[in-house]
Amino acid sequence: MTKKARFKAHLQTLDKIGTMMTAMRNLSFIEMNRVTKCLATQEKMNAMIQQIGIDFLSSYPQLLAQMEVVESNVYILIGAERGFCGGFNDNLIRYLETHLVHHSIKNPKIIIVGQKLAAKMMDDQRVIQVIAGPNTVDEISNIILNVINALTLVFTEFKLSAWNIIFNKKIKTRVEATVKQPFIEFKNIKKSDFKIPPQLNLSDQQFMIELMNQYVFFMLYSLFYQSFFAENYNRANHLDSALERLQKKVTCLTHSINLLRQEEVTQEIQNIMLSTQIILEEIHNEIGS
């Protein structure tokens, strides 16, 4: 295979890679648009549930003791299921380690969401369970159920009731990791000034259980939506940068192929001129003889 043929074959390979990367980037934009619509509604529902909880607990101060928010060594890390998302998973690992040191957390128990994050923490003995992460926004509902089931098992086995979630979110033009401690919104609620508490169709205890169940679901949806948006935002930016580098390689390779083609043309012209000169010399010799 000639040098030009090798270059052409490499150029075709780069074109195929570029087509795949463009398709992946476009899918990321589609998922970002879809999750944006979901997140707007979810945030409104989240705020409503939190306000109902605050109003309810302020009227039933005897239940506030059950809402005590304590430090926990159980951590859910919401990572990426797929690759090409830059430092998305590394953000979570760095944040986790800093958080554990800052809060002097001993023997943390980690539940990982996302196979790519799990691969980075494959040898980490602190990981107690791995759950597949979402590839599309439609998969988030089932994954939340899997997370709740995993938490139930952990709470039963280790006699725990508190937990934390570390996830990525987009802040302006950056993606940053942060931690969410569930029920923190209900800490230090002041007693209501109203003398008569809200009328309930359930017992106050049962109402609180149902309300907190709803709170957990809405909170998890919000965090997963934020994380999934940040993941696809990172992936789109990462692929944009990769496509720019790929285009530079394509341009350079195309230039090299054109130079080789020019060299071939020049060589052909030289060969024709040489052949012409030889023929003319032979004709001249025949005439002279």
UniProtKB/TrEMBL annotation:
Molecular function terms in GO for this entry?
proton-transporting ATP synthase activity, rotational mechanism
Q: What keywords appear on the UniProt entry?
A: ATP synthesis, CF(1), Hydrogen ion transport, Ion transport, Membrane, Transport
Q: InterPro entries attached here? A: ATP_synth_F1_ATPase_gsu (IPR035968), ATP_synth_F1_gsu (IPR000131)
Matching entries from Pfam families are given as: ATP-synt (PF00231)
Q: Where in the cell is it found?
A: Membrane
Record's GO cellular component terms = proton-transporting ATP synthase complex
Q: What does the record say about its membrane topology?
A: Peripheral membrane protein
Q: Which SUPFAM superfamilies match?
A: ATP synthase (F1-ATPase), gamma subunit
* Source organism superkingdom: Bacteria
Q: What does this protein do?
A: Produces ATP from ADP in the presence of a proton gradient across the membrane. The gamma chain is believed to be important in regulating ATPase activity and the flow of protons through the CF(0) complex.
State the similarity comment: Belongs to the ATPase gamma chain family.
- Provide the protein name: ATP synthase F1, gamma subunit
